[in-house]
Structure formats: structure tokens, C-alpha cells
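Task 17 of the worksheet. Students: predict the tertiary structure of the chain below and write it out as C-alpha cells. Keep your answer in the requested format; marks are given for formatting as well as content.
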Amino acid sequence: MIKWLFLIVGAFLFYYWLQGKKRVSQKAATAQVKKKSAQIVRSEPMVQCQACQLHLPQSAAITSENRFYCSEEHLHGLDKQGWLGSAQWRVSPNQDQRPTSEVPDLVVLHHISLPAGGFQNEDCTHWIVDFFLNQLNPNAHPYFKEIGGQRVSSHFLISRKGQIIQFVSTQNKAWHAGASSFFGREKCNDFSIGIELEGDSDHPFEEVQYQSLLHLNNALRTLNPHFQFAGHSDIAPNRKTDPGIQFNWSKFQAESGNPANDFPYGLNSR
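Model answer:
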């Protein structure tokens, strides 16, 4: 009798030990799964495409500044708010809304150099950025004291290195044209997109600037395939001379494929 009692107790203890071992193994396995899941979550955060709001793993997204895009098309295009994905975004306070009846159908090309000709010897793009943001240091150069109080902007700036910087959404009005007239249509800011090319009338523009201008052209054509193009000197001939004789209108027209009649002031440098 005692022998059978020992056998029963032994069997019970063995069963209890075996079940405990299984529980420990299951807990360890569960902990390992949770650990791996946490690692996956930590290593694959989800982000949202700036253009279409698609959610995707960050490792699969294209990054521009602190923004994410799901495709090259969205990176190099305008989003629904009128911002170019591949540009640097620097929002200027010098803007306002377009009149409700106006849709942009004109692109105005300018040139700008701060200080004059400074780009020949050093990188001066940051001065232009500061100017459009009302942050230009008047003590950095004598000329800056003269213009420091001006309140101007453009939609886009193309630096000597081909970098595109955007200051104003294409949906809004930038302050780039001033008093102006496009074949009798006054106040060109109301219906135009302003593009500044870093440079002047004495030095040829860089090839990389033309390439960036073509990129912008393609993006803007998705907004309006019938944009016309003019220089600041065309719409304000008594005040302005830019983009000047160094800008090659024929080159831009040929490489962009835009119809010649989209250049109502002609293709000669002026």
C-alpha cells in the first residue's frame, strides 16, 4: 500500500514539474515574440506621404528636409497645397491671397544678386533667403541698409548651384512684380508665378540653373498647361531689366518643349 502511495505521489510531482517547465518555456517564447515585435515596430516607423497622405514604412519613403514622399513623382511635383516636394521650404511673410477670380497663367522670370555680383566669390544665396524672410542683416553689407526695409518675395528662387527654394505657395500671391502690366492686364502679382534666378546681367546663368528651371516648368505645367512666360523687364519695362541679356530664352524654349507662342515677347535675349 505504501509502495503505491509513493508511486502516486512521485507521478504527481513529476507531472507538476513537467507542466511548470512547459509554462516557463511558453513564457519565454511569448517574451521573445513580444521582443521581436517591439524591435520590428521600432525599426519600421510609419510615415505619411506629404502629397497623397499614403502611410508607408519610413524605410520605403523618400525624404526631403523633414517631409516624406511615396514616389519620385510626388517628390518632384506640386502637392495639393501648391508646394514643390523637392524644394527647400522657407515660408515668407510677404504674401497674400489671390483675388478669387484669378488663376495663375503667367510665369515671370527675374534675376537677383545680394550683394551685387557677390555670387562670383562666395555662396550668397542665404542673403536672398534672408531678404525674402525679412531677416536681412543691414550691417552685413552697405547695400543691405538701402533695401532692408523692402517687403518682397517670389514663389521660387534658383541658386547658382541649382537649388530650388520655395517661399510662397503657388496658390497664393507673392510680391515679386510690383507695378506691372501684361498686355493690358495690370497687377501681374495677382495672376503670375515669380521665379528668381540668382545672377545678374553681366554673367551667364549656370547650366544647372536651366535644368532646375526645366524641373519647375514641368511641375507648373501640371498646374496649368497653358502658362505664358515673360521677363520682369517685359511687364515693367520702365523700371526693370531682368532677367537680362544673359538669360537664353531660345535655350529654355527648346529644352522645355513649350510652344513658341507661350513666349509672347519673343525668344531673343533682352
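Marker's comment: The radius of gyration is 31 Å. The chain is about 35% helix and 20% strand.
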